[in-house]
Predict the structure.
Amino acid sequence: MITPQIINDTKVVFGPCRLSFPHLFAKKKFDGDTGDGKYMVTVMIPKKEKGTINAINKAIETAKAAGIAKKWGGKEPRKLTLPLMDGDDANDELMHGHYTIKAKSNMRPGVLDKERNPIVDEEEIYGGMWAVVSVTFFPYNAAGNTGVGVALNGVVKFRDDERFGQSSDHDFDGIDLEDDDDL
């Protein structure tokens, strides 16, 4: 385990954590998205990592205080979207046992190996791998939505693991793949 580091009041470096849906080399656009898209990743933090969760919660509270002072008219909004989610509430069982945050950036984040060398092979980064991440929490007030967002600063690949959503060779055991003349 790496001790989470609060770089400043709202920037936290933590890990190892698992990445899901990483879009770190090209921006991801969603249907109906009129913008250029964003670089993004869902970060899965094991619930047993209490120090990491405490550091993240402290940074979120600092971002909330900044929002009250600078974005939300001196008070906390009644409806405030917060970034730390309980994975046990997700439909995806892979998220269970974790807290999750979705981190995004307009600029391409740094993606490094353990020796701090840039990773250029996109196949090296995938859902299911472990990483150390750097994120910054910030308040927002956009189009009537208020909350605390997460900016993705960078990722260091920590170790490989089983890829999410990929079939294994055993998925096809027991299936007859012989030619069928009736087709």
Remarks:
- The two ends are 55 Å apart (CA to CA).
- The beta strands are 5-6, 11-28, 38-46, 85-86, 98-105, 110-112, 130-142, 145-159.
- DSSP finds one helix and eight strands in the chain.
- Residues 50-70 form the longest helix (21 residues).
